[in-house]
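Hey, quick one: can you model this chain's 3D structure?
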Amino acid sequence: MLWPDAAAEFDRLRATLKWVAEHSPYYRRAFESAGVRVDEIRNYEAFRQCVPILRKTDLVANQRAHPPFGEFVTVPRKLFGSLHTSPGPIFLPRLPEENQGTETLREAIRAMGVAPGEVVHITLSYHIMPGGLRLHRAFEAAGCLVINGGTGSSQLQVELARAWQATVYAGTPSFLAHLVDTARSMSLDPRRDLFYRVGFSTAEMLTPQLRHELQAALGIELFDHCGEAQIGPLAGECHVHDGMHLHARDLFCEFLDPVTGNPAKPGEIGELVATQLGPRALPLVRYAPGDAFELIPGSCRCGRSTPRVRFVGQVGAIRKIKGVLVHPQQVHRVLQQFPQVRRFEIVIQHPPGERYERVRLRIGTDMALPVPDQLAAEIAAAVKSSVLLSMEVEFVPESEIPEEATRPPYAATIRDLRPGKGALP
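Sure thing. Here's the predicted structure for all 425 residues.
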């Protein structure tokens, strides 16, 4: 799948390719090496086949070899408007005319029902990282009053949010949960003494359980959003809360099967490959940060036609099992509805002489064993419904499952015992 529609945006994409080839030493050399002739690229398939993918590791390596910005930059340093840094570290210069996602975020803010004049409490980091500043600019552009809370100092943040009667929260869901706990430790009732009514959740997974807990504690409606430090905002929820709508501005997004490299179809998992459209100080063409998304089939009840995605996790944790791409995060999301589950791991085997692979979902629990067959059947049915793969459910003592198996990046969650199998690159 790709977005925006190739027919509508292809001229803009090709103009971007021509511009970066003329202004960026890295892409000039990369295109020449790959035999890319921009004027001969007539359709998306030609673009996909001939323009090379840039992985985050490639970007980091080039900046290390040619500090500080690598060979990507398109203008002299005196023309930079700002500098950002993301983990790696990766250095990100910006032109003054680059909106850095402000217009895209402002549309997402409007979609949440945020009105001009509302007080917004931003708790993303303002220190070096671009996230807090991006959101700050966008909410100001939307006519809001902004509290630049940043991270830490939770008691002071509660006092500020209460004093200013902030109605909008913007930050990670886990820090919002921490503010709820902090308010209670201050003998405050979060639902009565704080005024949040809507939340812009970002930078980490908003699980169904945490969403429910925060809504119950605050009476808040949370909207999940995702983005990436290099490419900016990518997608956000509407009021239906069934996946995130892709933003339709300044990005040409592909979602590719991590195994074949072909475009993923609705209902499948695809690796994000994004191209920034238009002039940039440090342009990114077919940039793959390593993020995998589930492509949600069908239209949204809100009436918007933009495709919807659900963040799955890092590509390296994906395995192909019985023809289905599976990420442990998908299973983790399902298991959160079962309080008996403490830890889990997935074991894949292909016993000699057997026609099919066997998949066991080993669940660590503190319940007395054996666990009722009905619970195992309920878990197996829920996993199959979500992941589209049957797994044998086995309960074991919690101590038998490694603690790191249930934590991101889920490197220890899948034990692939098939000959020659391992993580996807």
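One thing worth noting: DSSP finds twelve helices and 22 strands in the chain.
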